Amino acid sequence: MTGWVVGALAGGTYLIRLSGLVLRERLRVLDRFSRLFDLSALVLIAALTASITVFEGEVFAGWARPAGVLLAAIAAWCKAPLVVVIVIAAGVTAGLRALGVP
Description:
Elements: H1 2-22, H2 31-54, E1 55-56, E2 59-60, H3 64-77, H4 82-98
Antiparallel strand pairs: 1-2
């Protein structure tokens, strides 16, 4: 199901961007709405990431996964390379699960 959601979000984002190019000369959008359009894709992806991080199906995923994502987000905020961010997320999550943290 997650694949369909990601595909729908990607398709919707693509169509919004494409409509901006096609309708640029015909439609005038206020600046504040233009800013909201730009933020909408970010909000949708953040909500999807948060739900995948916290839940596995309909149950709580445990503390290891959110801890790994949190430390990876901090590393990304500090402008660490993507490979380092991924290794931190996987390493922290695997390490905590190895220690018995669910």
